[in-house]
Automatic annotation (TrEMBL), chain A:
InterPro entries reported for this sequence: Alpha-ketoacid_DH_E1_comp, DH_E1, PdhA/BkdA, THDP-binding
Name of the coding gene: pdhA
Catalytic activity: N(6)-[(R)-lipoyl]-L-lysyl-[protein] + pyruvate + H(+) = N(6)-[(R)-S(8)-acetyldihydrolipoyl]-L-lysyl-[protein] + CO2
Protein name in UniProt: Pyruvate dehydrogenase E1 component subunit alpha
Listed cofactors: thiamine diphosphate
Function, as annotated: The pyruvate dehydrogenase complex catalyzes the overall conversion of pyruvate to acetyl-CoA and CO(2). It contains multiple copies of three enzymatic components: pyruvate dehydrogenase (E1), dihydrolipoamide acetyltransferase (E2) and lipoamide dehydrogenase (E3).
A Pfam match: E1_dh
Keyword Disulfide bond: no
Enzyme class, broadest EC rank: oxidoreductase
Dehydrogenase E1 component domain boundaries: 43-331
Organism for this UniProt entry: Microbulbifer bruguierae
SUPFAM superfamilies per record: Thiamin diphosphate-binding fold (THDP-binding) (SSF52518)
PANTHER family according to UniProt: 2-OXOISOVALERATE DEHYDROGENASE SUBUNIT ALPHA, MITOCHONDRIAL
From TrEMBL, chain B:
Keyword Oxidoreductase: yes
Domain Transketolase-like pyrimidine-binding: 24-199
Region (Disordered): 1-20
Gene3D superfamilies listed in its UniProt record: 3.40.50.920, 3.40.50.970
Name of the molecule in the record: Alpha-ketoacid dehydrogenase subunit beta
Source taxon at top rank: Bacteria
Length: 376, 351
């Protein structure tokens, strides 16, 4: 059949950013913000995130935590993101973000509380503006769009500095309508909104190639008129540069951006999962070769910023931090059962008094019974 | 049972105080309430599809964008999940989003955000963040619309913990309840019975006075029978009550207005007088609000009843296209049948 002559209407590129290669060697001059202090701080926070995840998984194994999603292998994305944000920005996270939570000021005991079934764990005392963890995939991207609208609105009404909303998600989440709807709105309304996609290659058992026919996740932003960038997600410098740049542009009114951070989930999807059912030991083995902590460690040592002695000090310090947090978590007094009614509405509707009283009476009966039991 | 003030306030407003203002329709009252809220609270933002220049497909937002600008009254792209979801984000930042779904039949993509997020935000952050959102949607059949434009699935939403479901049935109640919904600190689904959007006019002064949520309105007093209806069905229910009255039977007509949380007190108070009850709704019967009301009545007032609670409802079918719409919707005759079944009921079956 005769093929018509076609003319190019539009063309797009996806750029890729990396500072440290897989072996931890600098491939280009480091960004200015990457001072020795900054680098060692980020390294510490990644170590801490790994430790928290490790302990959380162990706590789950002994039945003290419910299902837990570790961020093993993608600590650089969370730490870089959390680090780049200002306190006034609003972080709208998904569930696999220990490093970002820590950088945002969320306490380890709050993280543990949340996954051990205590809803006070999402009442972040030190990150009061951030949204709680979103479990339904991709929904947080729309919340972030709403938040970004509110921030822009406030800026326009009150002349306050423009703050930014930032949403994180896995690459599987970019298959959902919520993701496209949020990007579409952010693009057309020029919202101060940054999307960070943790492309850790797997959505539970579904590999990226079975998730989307798209060559990159970043290019999905093109259709929404949003600038996008692919970065090495195991290179904290690359993620940090991208997030900072996107935030800065959003803050100056230039609108949204999408960052695809390429990484690899080194753990099971959650403690309820067994990744050996769907991915090979060789693939996992290979992925360990370019993981983010080792990479930064190598670089820091090559610059004489790190040593065995420093590592030992850090290990000791973090073990102490973890122990304090575990104690704080364990010594929490449980919430009264009636709390399930306390925050349902601002004020309990009268029609629920009866159910509230029923629960309170049951609790009182149980307590009395316990006391009597103790006396006998 | 405690006495409620909702009914008194509603009546007072409708009867006396309001005589001076020009009569407006229910949809006009929605517009008036939105304008009042926008004018008096800078945190209120109104958004949805075609609500700007077009004023909404039913003109509920007519003129608002002109008056309040494109930053307060916004046309969104066409995506209901998005409309429901961004409201959650806005509300967490202290805005008071009023989101319009063009029709209730298109609310389902937004259900995820209403159910999974808007109604749970306060609870899961133990009060740190909340979602004072109003989701508005025209609902119900009877306007000869295409498929999916006549949905009456309020029971889906009354099942959701943490949500308020409010349905006005007159211009005055639309104005007062919508203002209350916008000022309420929690998410409210505000269902507007579009069949009576323009069915009647009533003076509704723009005084910013809200009507109480969670309180039923007694629209007509009577001692022989209690008829319960909301939204557009109130019209036929009042007509049935008038017809019964002509036959010497005085029916009390109650409009719960807030379907969740339900003011069962007013209903039980009424049953103490009447001992017989018919619930009317155009939604399908199975698992509908009629079932909930009947269950609560038998829980709290079994001994008061002289007859089983009757349900006059739509069928458990898809709402038909409009050639059969009137077969589906409960009309005056069906309500009268239900009333007679309740009135004629004798224990043991002897007439
Ligand atoms: C709407 C929805 N569907 C299904 C699930 C179950 N689920 C939890 S995590 C997950 C995979 C998510 O993968 P991805 O977005 O890539 O993030 P990752 O967990 O790999 O970091 C699925 C299917 C869910 N939480 N929400």
């Amino acid at each position: 059949m005769h093929k018509p002559r076609l003319q190019l209407q539009a063309s797009f590129d996806i750029a890729w950013l990396q500072y440290l290669d897989k072996q931890g060697r600098a491939t280009q001059p480091l960004p200015e913000f990457a001072s020795p202090d900054w680098l060692t701080h980020c390294y510490r926070q990644m170590q801490l995130a790994r430790l928290v995840d490790d302990r959380a998984v162990k706590l789950q194994r002994t039945g003290r935590l419910g299902t837990y999603p570790s961020s093993l292998g993608q600590e650089a994305i969370g730490v870089a993101t959390g680090n780049a944000l200002m306190a006034e920005d609003v972080y709208c996270p998904y569930y696999r973000e220990t490093g970002a939570f820590l950088e945002r000021g969320v306490r380890i005991e709050e993280i543990l509380a949340n996954w051990s079934g205590d809803e006070r764990g999402q009442n972040y005392q030190h990150a009061p503006r951030d949204l709680p963890i979103c479990i339904p995939i991709a929904t947080q991207m729309l919340h972030a769009a709403g938040v970004a609208f509110a921030l822009k609105y406030r800026h326009q009404q009150q002349g306050s500095p423009l703050q930014v909303a930032i949403a994180s998600a896995g690459e599987g989440a970019t298959s959902k309508g919520d993701f496209y709807e949020a990007m579409n709105l952010a693009g057309v309304w020029k919202l101060p909104l940054v999307f960070v996609v943790n492309n850790n290659q797997w959505a539970i058992s579904v590999p990226r190639v079975a998730q989307t026919g798209s060559q990159t996740i970043a290019q999905k932003a093109i259709a929404a008129g949003i600038p996008a960038l692919q970065v090495d997600g195991n290179d904290i410098l690359a993620v940090a540069w991208a997030v900072r740049d996107a935030l800065q542009r959003a803050r100056s009114g230039e609108g949204p951006a999408l960052i695809e951070a390429i990484s690899y989930r080194l753990c099971d999807h959650t403690t309820a999962d067994d990744a050996s059912r769907y991915r090979s030991a060789e693939e996992l083995e290979q992925a360990w070769q370019w993981e983010p902590l080792k990479r930064l460690d190598t670089y820091l040592r090559s610059e004489n910023l790190w040593s065995d002695g420093k590592q030992q000090d850090l290990d000791r310090e973090l073990a102490q931090v973890m122990e304090t947090a575990l104690n704080d978590w364990e010594s929490r007094t449980p919430e009264p059962a009636t709390a399930i009614f306390d925050h349902l509405y601002a004020q309990l509707p009268e029609s629920l008094y009866e159910q509230y009283d029923q629960l309170r009476d049951e609790q009182l009966r149980e307590k009395l019974w316990e006391k009597e039991g103790a006396v006998q | 049972m405690e006495n409620r003030t909702g009914n008194e306030m509603g009546e007072r407003q409708e009867a006396t105080e309001l005589r001076d203002s020009a009569p407006i329709t229910l949809v006009g009252a929605v517009n008036q309430a939105l304008a009042h809220a926008l004018a008096n609270d800078p945190q209120v933002v109104v958004f949805g599809q075609d609500i700007g220049a077009n004023g909404g497909v039913f003109r509920a937002t007519d003129g608002l964008q002109k008056q309040f600008g494109t930053q307060r009254v916004l046309d969104t792209p066409l995506a209901e999940t998005m409309i429901a979801g961004i409201a959650v984000g806005m509300a967490t930042q202290g805005l008071r989003p009023v989101a319009e779904f063009q029709f209730m039949g298109f609310i389902y993509p937004g259900l995820d955000h209403i159910l999974s997020h808007a109604t749970r935000m306060r609870n899961r952050t133990r009060g740190r963040l909340s979602c004072p959102i109003v989701y508005r949607a025209p609902y119900g059949g009877g306007i000869h619309a295409p498929e999916h434009h006549s949905e009456s699935t309020e029971a889906l939403f009354t099942h959701i913990p943490g949500l308020r479901v409010v349905v006005p049935s007159s211009p005055a109640r639309a104005y007062g309840l919508l203002l209350a919904a916008i000022r309420d600190p929690d998410p409210v689904l505000f269902l507007e019975p579009k069949r009576i959007y323009r069915a009647a006019r009533q003076p509704v002064p723009d005084n910013g006075e809200a009507l109480p949520l969670d309180s039923a309105f007694v629209l007509r007093e009577g001692s022989d029978l209690t008829l319960i209806a909301w939204g557009a069905s109130v019209k036929e229910t009042l007509a049935a009550a008038a017809q019964l009255s002509a036959e010497g039977i005085e029916a009390e007509v109650i409009d719960p207005a807030t379907l969740k949380p339900l003011d069962i007190h007013t209903i039980i108070d009424s049953l103490e007088k009447t001992r017989r009850c018919v619930v009317v709704h155009e939604a399908a019967r199975f698992g509908g609000m009629g079932a909930e009301i009947a269950a609560q009545i038998q829980e709290y007032a079994f001994d008061l009843l002289d007859a089983p609670v009757q349900r006059v409802t739509g069928y458990d079918t898809v709402m038909p296209y409009y050639q059969l719409e009137n077969v589906y919707l409960p009309g005056v005759e069906r309500i009268l049948d239900g009333a007679r079944a309740a009135l004629d009921y004798r224990r043991g079956g002897a007439a």
